[in-house]
Amino acid sequence: MAPGLDADPELTYADLVDLALPAQLVALAEVRKAIRLKPEEAPGLAPGHVRLYIEARTLDLLVGDDIGESIRFLADVPLDARGKPPKLGRTEVIVLGRAVPDKIEELQLVAPDAMLMLTPAREATLRAILTETSRPDAPPAITALREALHVSGNLAGEGETQLFLGTASGAPVSISVLRRPGQPPTWGVSFTEIVDSAARPPLPATLAWYRLACGLPNRLPDRANISSSLADRRIAAEDYAQVLADLGPCSRKRAAP
Predict the structure, then answer these.
(1) pLDDT 10s digits, 229-238
(2) What whole-number distance in Å separates Cα of residue 236 and Cα of residue 187?
(3) What is the pTM of this model?
């Protein structure tokens, strides 16, 4: 994550991934014209916001096919403290959207608030996110925690918990938690068919971290805990809680429009 994003008052890493994943086009642009739509032209507008018709000059295209030198789109932005729309002339922005068929200069934003003020931290973080999501082996979305199994070792305090996750793509994802006598538990995640006891936790502000921190349930489902004894079931739940604690919360700051 680029330095400075952790201090962003409006967006977190998870917010940017939320916007980047469905985007077919991500562009840097300079606003040239912003026209306020009438209330009857802005259905579903959130309180304290205004819907603007934007015309902008393309500065750079991070993802997507050529969209030409200028783009047009609708965006919802918050009103200022006086209840007025912000003055956006010559403002540089990041736009995340989809192309409108047969209209090369028109975009549909992936969310009403998917026009972001451009900052170096946001741009750098988005570039890193887009690089990760474009890889063939990009970590898939987590849809379920299918099974959790703890097996105790021969020594007191020794054992391993394996967590098997369901994914949107069907690709295998597993987490292994190792316990050794006199040592704190260690764990790692594997995004392959091999359950790797040498795997490591994902780094913060990476797509792998996002998939786990934002996709795992906040507790181990009882039905998924297939450990054979009550003691092993308890340890599996403890190990899962430790994984969540190490990942940290999936923090978001975007308000639902």
Answers:
(1) 999 999 999 9
(2) 12
(3) 0.92
